[in-house]
Amino acid sequence: MVTIPTAVLDIPGQDATTEAVTHTGDFDRFTELLTRHWDSAYRYAYHLTGNVPDAEDLVQQAAEEALVSFRRFQPGTRFDRWLMRIVHNSFIDRIRRGRRLTVFSLDDVHASPLVADRSDDPEAAAEAALHGLVLRALQALPPEFRAAVILVDLQGLPYGDAAEILHCPVGTIRSRLHRGRLTLRELLRPHMEAVKRGEA
Amino acid sequence: MDEHPSDLLSAYADGALPQGQAAEVAAHLVECDRCRTVVDDLQEVQTMLHSIPRPSPDPSLLPRTLARLEGRNRRSRFVMRWRIAAAVAMGGAVLALLWPVTPVPSAEHGTGTWYFRQHAEMALIHPVEDVSLASYLSTPLPYRAVEESLEWR
């Protein structure tokens, strides 16, 4: 019988607090909120882009755009979701404008490692290789599928929040997530079969 | 559920389906090896995704970004003040330029003398018969103003 997984990642920003901003345009308030949600915004940018320089560039651009848009920030909106949406929109905008972003093909998934292994420990090296493999597989997904998988599986957000960030119905999130996971399964199948055979 | 509920399997594995739908998928999974395998694989993929370490940003990234934002915010305020000052200066300059060309109304404007002159000029330009002149003068003219002006003379 299939069990429903209960393991959930530590979910940042799920303290059910609604960060209402009473003084719109207040720079200090903005920096305070940005600081509080900086790590999760960076993680989202990193998983979207797949590398540190692009992630840093993207999250900085998103922070600047968020500052410009902060006057339109509606009280009652969750700042972390709002910021993630800006990160996502900036990412899509970069893709459309054809700016430099590392693009992975399916062939790249099993090629060079994304996560550099600096350890002499074989177990740690194997773990790093697996993480690199998973990250490359993630980068090979189409952006819409990748975003849904990152938000739900890596950021641990509920479907409704992911739909809010990606500005689409929950049904679309469900579909993108499923197709994204199926694609990942195909990309990671060699590793999964090796694990089953006890080779990995 | 006769057909394979392929699109629902991920949501089922996440526990994100409504109770009735989840029960239908669960009943299907009891009898369908293929879908059960898919769910098992999806869960394995999720386990692999969850195993990825959570990256932390470079500690200097946030201070660098805040400094950039601070600079940008200061520049915006500076530009905004300059725009307001420029708009005020421009408005003042336009008023100063227009001032000399604006006709200044005569000090007599609206007085009895002024009305008298207007009608006198009118009569000169458009000479009319006495009867017509009397008719013309009978209604629209402010007689009191004319009288005042005559008295004044």
| Cα Rg of chain A | 18 Å
Which outline of chain B best applies?
A: elongated
- The number of helical elements of chain B comes to 7
The protein's oligomeric status is: heterodimer
Could you tell me how far the N terminus lies from the C terminus of chain B, measured between alpha carbons in angstroms? 112 Å
Average pLDDT confidence of chain A is 80
Biggest sheet character of chain A: none
What class do helices, strands and sheet pairing of chain B give?
mainly alpha
Share of residues in strands of chain B? under 5%
Share of residues in strands of chain A: under 5%
- What ranges of chain B have pLDDT less than 50 throughout 5 or more consecutive residues? none
- Shape of chain A from CA axes? globular
End-to-end Cα distance of chain A: 26 Å
Largest sheet of chain B: none
Radius of gyration of chain B: 46 Å
Structural classification of chain A: mainly alpha
Low-confidence stretches of chain A: 1-24
Report the helical percentage of chain B: over 70%
Q: How many alpha or pi helices of chain A? A: 8
Task: Briefly characterize the structure.
The complex is a heterodimer of chains A (200) and B (153). Chain A is mostly helical.
Descriptive report:
The complex is a heterodimer of chains A (200) and B (153). Chain A is an all-alpha fold and 200 residues long. Helix content of chain A is 62%, strand content 0%. Chain A is built from eight helices and no strands. The model of chain A is unreliable at 1-24 (pLDDT under 50). With 153 residues, chain B is mainly α. Helices cover 71% and strands 0% of the residues of chain B. In chain B, helix 2 (19-31) crosses helix 3 and helix 5 crosses helix 7. Chain B is elongated and about 120 Å long. The mean pLDDT of chain B is 81.
